Amino acid sequence: MNITVLAVGTKMPRWVDEAVNEYAKRFGRDVCYTLKEIKPEKRGAGVNAAQGMAAEEKRILEAIPAGAFLVVLDERGKAPTSVELAGHLENWQRNGEHVCFVIGGADGMTDRLKQQARLMMRLSSLTLPHGMVRVLLTEQLYRAVSILHNHPYHRE
């Protein structure tokens, strides 16, 4: 199964990269996990939030793998349990889907980009820093895979 995470933002703290890499290497051969950083648009000097999100949208759309099942992380999305996320992964894998998750920039994402998503999902009702979202999403994807493999990582 192919999973791509597109995350607006660069130069994350070392602990973020280390944590994401740690969970990513645990996937093993069953999952090809890729994290691609999308350059954020600088704000100020005549660039407002809407213009910045539009520029980021263009970069995101160019980075989405062809034919991918698009999942946008948004505070108004559905909040699946870990077991429900595992069910989504199982369905996507069964259907041969390449799944692409999008983590927007500081101002969020355009409505147009959200409308293109086949699923809008949230990880928490809390506002989280972008680095934490990368770590949390990667850990939850690993947890979902471990649930599907009956690995003892997840306990109910």
From TrEMBL:
InterPro entries reported for this sequence: Alpha/beta_knot_MTases (IPR029028), RlmH-like (IPR003742), tRNA_m1G_MTases_N (IPR029026)
Pfam families: SPOUT_MTase (PF02590)
The keyword Translocase is annotated on this UniProt entry: no
Positions bound to S-adenosyl-L-methionine: L73, G104, L123, S124, S125, L126, T127, L128
GO cellular component entries: cytoplasm
Keyword field: Cytoplasm, Methyltransferase, rRNA processing, S-adenosyl-L-methionine, Transferase
EC number: 2.1.1.177
SUPFAM superfamilies in UniProt: alpha/beta knot (SSF75217)
Record's keyword annotation contains RNA-binding: no
GO molecular function per UniProt: rRNA (pseudouridine-N3-)-methyltransferase activity
Superkingdom as given in the UniProt entry: Bacteria
Gene3D superfamilies membership: 3.40.1280.10
Cellular compartments annotated: Cytoplasm
Catalytic activity: pseudouridine(1915) in 23S rRNA + S-adenosyl-L-methionine = N(3)-methylpseudouridine(1915) in 23S rRNA + S-adenosyl-L-homocysteine + H(+)
Role summary: Specifically methylates the pseudouridine at position 1915 (m3Psi1915) in 23S rRNA.
Family according to the record: Belongs to the RNA methyltransferase RlmH family.
Assembly notes: Homodimer.
The name this protein goes by in its record: Ribosomal RNA large subunit methyltransferase H
Native source organism of the sequence: Neisseria dentiae
